[in-house]
Amino acid sequence: MSKQEMGRFNISPDDDSMSSNSNDDFSYPEYPAKKSSTNGHYDMDPENQNFLLEPTLAKKKCETEYLPGTTSFGMSVFNLSNAIVGSGILGLSYAMANTGIALFMILLTFVSVFSLYSIHLLLKTANEGGSLLYEQLGFKAFGLFGKLAASGSITMQNIGAMSSYLYIVKYELPLVIKQLVGPTVDPNAWYLSGDCLVVMVSVFLILPLSLLRNLGYLGYTSGFSLLCMVFFLIVVIYKKFEITCGSWLTNDVFNSTLNNTMSQLTAEDHTNGAELNVTHDDDDMCKPKYFVFNSQTVYAVPILTFSFVCHPAVLPIYQELKGRSRKRMMNVSNVSFFAMFVMYLLAALFGYLTFYGNVEPELLHTYSKVAGGIIFVIVRLAVLMAVTLTVPIVIFPIRSSITQLLCAGKDFAWWRHILITFLILAFTNVLVIFVPTIRDIFGFIGASAAAMLVFILPSAFYIKLVKKEAMNSVQKIGALLFLISGFVVMIGSMTLIIIDWVHTESSDGH
What we know:
Blueprint: H1 55-65, H2 73-84, H3 92-97, H4 101-129, H5 134-181, H6 194-210, H7 219-242, H8 247-250, H9 260-263, H10 268-276, H11 282-285, H12 300-307, H13 311-319, H14 326-355, H15 363-367, H16 374-406, H17 414-434, H18 438-465, H19 474-509
């Protein structure tokens, strides 16, 4: 078994302790347990007993080859929260406009609870399976097929997320620069080219941060990224009380350039649906809806599911958590999910209550109708900084997945680490620059990969690898139902997207 495959688990008496012995943080399922030497010293969960080494062998292994988790609880919360939040927050008001307040809150609650449940399954499976690598859990459960399924899902999901972030950089950063320089700027200047800017941001900001070997070092940038999103949320709440309902109709200053970002990420009929919403009756236009069903409602679940996908980052964060234990990592997850639940709900609610049915798929663009000035330049910069600083977090699980797939069993090498990081960024930049219709591909990949990572893989691995629970137990039955619901979500979302493609193609043909 390779170094990377070794699970590392805290077996200290106090799960919440921050000062566990480094020699107690690791597990080696290949070796037999020596229960007689530990019963008097550890208050242990039975699931961890099979991870104990002979004391002398464990001491030698830990001292010469392995390091304990070094990332604090707070930094782990920042990293996981940053892995959750992203460009999806800009589209939640649009989702609420097409579901209604009550239905949106129901869907948001269910998706967040299901995502937390899948993290619980994943962490318990990691303990039982003896590995903190998603791909190795897949291999232990279903052989090469499981490893390929895990690696492929992680890579597709995160490449799609990275591309959406870089699309925002490509189409928003030139607008910010243009507003800062002034109206006399040459529109053909190189520094207003989105392609040039996205490459420069990737090379000079994203690449250096992505080359860090440990996620813990990104806790500070993650904290700053979250502060940027909190600032965005504060402005959204403030503008709700400043912008009067209907003012966007009398002061319609649509700027076609400002509508590029989400038009690159969503289907064309989404925008058409947003435009059709403008034709509401005046009496009905400023009344909040609690339940809405229309052609765009079906996209709410994929949008929300995508917004809570952080599962590829869970095991790397767990691996580096100081005082590592399943209970401690679930506390990290609970805090992170609760914070993001509140942020998502407030951003969606106040954005919707500002524009009601006239909200666009990308919330920032909607404000261009009625608001401007330096405050929204700062807001755009904050959002740009937030999504840019999230990209390195997303690269970590992709690089780990590729390394496990192609170079499993090999020692760490800086040249390989740098090369894989560079190739990931280069490939994503090529997609963003040369494939303008990548939004359809991302929609399909997001619906399939998100369902795989949230529903299908954690429950399937749990059912296969957790042997101490019978198939007729409540835990296994719950995991089985979760697995079935995952297939329903994935097949349903993919079918609806394909139908949407066919409908769009037939409409364009006429």
